[in-house]
Amino acid sequence: MSQRTTTPRAELHTHLGAAVDPVIMWTIAHRQGIRLPVKDYWDFEDLITMGPGKKNRGVFEMDRDYYHLTELIQSSPEAIEEAVHSVIGGGYRKCNLVLQELRFSPMKRNRTGERDLDFIILAALWGMRRAMVEYPQVSAGLIVALDRSFSPAQNAITLEKAIRYAPDGIVGIDICGPDKKSFSMRAHAPLLLRARKAGLGITVHAGETGNLEELRYVVRTIRPERIGHGLCAAKDPKLLKEIAKQGIVLELCPTSNLLNSVVKDVRELHRVIRTFVDHGVRFTVNTDGPEMYRTSVLKEEEFLLSQGIMSEKELARCMRWAFEAAFVRPKKK
Ligand SMILES: [Zn+2]
């Protein structure tokens, strides 16, 4: 279905591991000779998407059961080029996304050191560039994800590469992955500071699950432009005020939060989002990964509207915020 008549939209929070059409993933996997755990395409689709009735007990399960396979399939220069290319074009065709920021962890796509990180990043950038030539209406940028499962030294390696390729289309840095006891946000603060000095945008996954202490640290000390999720801020009115005052933009992903049991149910989601609205916190509506969660920015908006969580006017305002908070500069007409 053509989305040409839809209002132009921007999406800021999409993980490459959750964003590629299963049909394309299936072909990429076979072309590379990856031995898949299933032999029927439909079983594969079921394996990498959250179909009806599926729900994770937490973000940890999502990472272990879904991302493990998608990241493996995307772990070569050829695979990542195709993957990135398909997401940028797909977003434009399906949702009229004229601005898209796509994030991925290069170090989770180098087959534990077997592949060269530079070539993984360059291939991702090339896939993005190709898509932007094919779809000249689209502005896109890649966010390089550091990961909670890696040490500060490992993440520093990734960061230096992100800085090196910033002129080619790396626009920001993120810290992803489920909570881990071994991870210290404090130990990563110097890396984020370095990223900022180098001109990269900063977004951090924080407050997706219940770690309010870490979220406070991120807001007060790291002071990023954007935060991935940030839901648990809703429990702390003082922190909400600080987020609003600093102009930090939260990247919300409603369906993902429901399917990963980050919020208990629609009622809780309703309460959290209304708390943000009431406190003047700016936020954007995203998918976290349209294919894995079988959603899109349009579907997310329709969902929030149909559940009476947000009005059309509020959703349009969120979309304006998305364009304003983007690290990518939209194309000049
Ligand atoms: Zn995310």
Commentary on this structure:
- The protein has 333 residues and is of the alpha/beta class.
- The protein has one domain (9-325): TIM Barrel, CATH 3.20.20.
- Helices cover 48% and strands 14% of the residues.
- The protein is built from 13 helices and 8 strands.
- It has an 8-stranded parallel β-sheet.
- The protein starts with 8 loop residues before the first strand and ends in an 8-residue tail after the last helix.
- The mean pLDDT is 94.
- It binds zinc ion.
- Zinc ion binds next to strand 1.
Question: What's a quick, concise take on this entry?
Answer:
This protein has 333 residues and is an alpha/beta fold. It is built from 13 helices and eight strands.
Question: Which structural class do you get from the secondary structure elements?
Answer: alpha/beta
Total separate domains: 1
CATH top level class name: Alpha Beta
Strand content: 5-15%
* SSE arrangement, N to C: EHHHHEHEHEHEHEHEHHEHH
Summarize the main sheet.
Answer: 8 strands, parallel
Per CATH, the superfamily is Metal-dependent hydrolases
For the record, give the distance between the C-alpha atoms at the N and C termini, rounded to a whole number: 26 Å
Name given to the CATH architecture: Alpha-Beta Barrel
Which regions have little confidence, pLDDT < 50, spanning 5+ residues?
A: none
Topology, pairings included?
Layout: E1 9-15, H1 22-31, H2 41-48, H3 59-73, H4 77-95, E2 97-104, H5 117-134, E3 139-147, H6 152-164, E4 170-176, H7 185-197, E5 201-206, H8 212-222, E6 226-229, H9 237-246, E7 249-252, H10 254-259, H11 266-278, E8 283-285, H12 297-306, H13 312-325
Parallel strand pairs: 1-2, 2-3, 3-4, 4-5, 5-6, 6-7, 7-8
The protein binds zinc ion.
